[in-house]
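Entry details:
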Amino acid sequence: MITIGMLHHRRNPTTVIKSYAYAAVARAEGVNFFYFSPGTVNFVNRTIRGQVYENGSWHERIMPFPDVIYNAGSPEKLAKSREIINKLKSEIPFTTNSIGNKWNINERLKDAKEFSSYLIPAEIVKNVESFHKFISSFHKVVFKPIDGRKGKGIYFISKVGESYVVRKDSEDQTYTKQNLNNFLEGKLSEGTFIVQPYINSTTKSGQVFDFRLHVQKNGEGKWVVTTIYPRVAPSGSIIANINNGGFTNYLDPFLQQEFKEEAFNIRRLLEHFSLSLAEHLDQIQMVKYGEIIDEIGIDIGLDENLKIWIYEVNWRPGCPPAFYLELDVVINSIKYAKYVAENQVKIKKNIVAAQKRNRKVKKELPIIAITGSAGKTTSKAFLASILAKKWTIFESKDYWNTTEHTKKHAEEINDTHEAVVLEYGMAYPGVITEHCSIIQPTISVVTNIGLAHVGNFDGDIKGVAQAKSELIHGMDQTGILIINKDDDNSKHLETTQFKGKIMTVGIKSPANYRAYGIKYVDNGMSFKIKLRRQEIEMFIPILGEHHVYNALNAIAVADYLGFTPMEIKAGLIFRKPPRRLTVYDCKDNITVIDDTVHSHPQGVKAAIDVLTNVGKNRNIAIIGQMRELGDLREQEYRKVGDYVYEQGIDVLITYGYRTEEIGAQANARGFPTQNTYHFTDKDKMHELLKEIVRKNDTILVKGASKTNMFDTVHFLDKFFKE
C-alpha cells in the first residue's frame, strides 16, 4: 500500500484545515497518509515522527519514510529547513515544487516567450524616480508587493493633472507629488514592490472582475481543469480577491450575462488557455530544474478587446471558495500523489526528453546594427530596453561603436543571447564594411544622414550617405532595413539592389511607423502611433522631438520581432544614455540642460528646440565647437546663428575655435550684441556665468565630448546647487 506524507511548516495538523480533507480522501482511495514537519525527520533510521488521523483525532506515530511527499507548506517558512528538505527530495519523490514568487514566474514566462504576450509589463520599483517614469507612460498603474498574497497591500494609483489619486480597496486619497513620494518611500522601505499598468476588466455594470483558473494533474499525470470561476469586486473597489470582499459567481451564467453570443467561445478559450499555460510552466520546470509541478491557480483579466492578461500565477493556490469544490481539489491531489509514487521511471524519462527537446530548438539570432549621423546610441538604448523585456540580449556599451569594439563584441556574443543590438560608427569610407565583415547584421537601422564627419568626405553629403550605405550592402541581403522617411539626405542611400524588406519611420511624412500628436510633458515626450490597428500613446523619458525618431526606430524593429504594443510601451521607459539632454534642477528654479556628448549642426538645432520648449523664463544657450565640418564650417555656423535668432534665445555664449561666427551671424540678423559672448578660456566663461545667471533661467550646454563642455555643466550644477 502506498504511503503519502504531507509536509507542512506547522507542527500541529489541527491548525491546517485542509489536512483533515486529505486524510479522509486518502483513506477512501486506499492509501496510508500522515502529516509531518521537517523537524520530525530522522535520516539515520529513515523514520518520521508524524501525525495520523484516526477515530476523529490526530495521533503521533513513528512512520517509515513515505513513498511520496505532498509538499503543502509555505516555501518561505520551510526555507530555514532547506537542508532537510533537499535531502528528502534526493530520496523521496515530491508531488510538486515551488515555482517562485510572482516576479520569478513572470521572468520564466518572458524567457520562454510563448506566453509572454499575455503578461502585463511589470517593473521592480527601485526608487521614486523609476515609479514616476512608469506612471508618466501608463497614467494608471497598480503598485503591489512582489510576494503579496490574497490581494493584500495592492494600490491603484492614477495621475490626474498635477495630483495623484491613490486607491486602496474602495477608498481614494488625493496626494501632491511630494506626498506621493513620501508614501512610496515609506512602502519601499518596508519591502520590494512592483508596478504594472492597470488593465480595465469590468462588467457591464462597471464592477471590476477577473477569472481564477484552477488546474491540477490527475491520477494519470495529466493536466485537468478543476474549476474556472469569475470573481467580482465590491462596488467601487479594484480588487476582486475574495479576501477583500469580492464575490464569486458560476461561470456559465456570468459569461452569458456579460458576453452573450461570445460566451461559449470564451469558455473554451479559458479552458484551453489554462491547460496550455499549466503544461508550459511544467515544461519550464522540467527543463530548468529537472522537477515537476502539479497545481496552479491563474488569475486573468479580459480587457475591452477580449484579450487575456495574466495578473498572476499562484503555485499551490487555495481551494475554491464555493461550489463544494474543495474535495475535487483534494481527490486530484491524492490520486496524483499515487501516480507519482508508481511512475517515477516514466516521470524521469519525461524530464530527460523535455531537456533534450529544449537543447535541439535552434533559435535564429536577430543581429541588429544601427548607424547614422545622429541618434545611434539612443536608438540602440531604446531597442535594447524593449527586447530585454523578454529576451536575453547582447547590447554594446554606449558609444562603443568602432571596429575594434565590434571585434570584442564578436568574442563576447554566446549561445545564451537571443538578440544582439550594436551601433556601427564610422568617420571614413570602408569602416562600416569592416564592421559587417566581423558581425553581419540581419536587421539594420540608418537613423539619418547628417553633417557629422562631412569634412572627411570633401564636404559632400552624398559621400557620407555612400559610406553609411555600406551597412545596406554588408548586411543580410534578405533582412530588414529601417530608414528615416523625413530625412532628405537619406534619399542618397543606396537601396536599389537591396532584396530585403525596407520599412520607414517618420513624423512629417507618411511612413510605416509614424508618430503624431507629439508633446513635451513632464520628464520627456509623449506621442501617438498606430500599431496592429490600435492607436497607442507612447512616452519616452527624454526630451526632444528628434528622440521620437530614435524611439520609432526601436518600435519598428521590436514590432517586426513580434513584441506587443504593451511590451514596447514598457520598454521605452529606458535607461537614458548619460549626458543626453539630462536636466539638472538647481537653486532659484535654475535649470541646466546637459547635451555634451556629440555636436553637429543638426544636433545643435535639436537641442535649441528643447531649450525653447522647456525654458521657463530666460533661455541661455552655450554652444561649443563643432568638429569635422571641413569647408562647410563657416556656412553651417551661420545657419546655427540664424536659428538662434529665429528661436528667440535670450543669451548666446559660444566657446571654442571660430565659434564667434555663430554669434556674428545672429547679431547680423538682429540678435542683441550685448547678449552675445564668445570665449576660448573656459574659466573666464564660468566667471561670466556667475554674474549673468538669474533666478528662473534655463541654460543649455551643447558641445562634443572632445571639447570637455561637461566641465561647464559640472560648474553650473556645483555653483547653483540647491
Summary: The CA atoms of residues 469 and 494 lie 6 Å apart. The chain is about 35% helix and 25% strand.
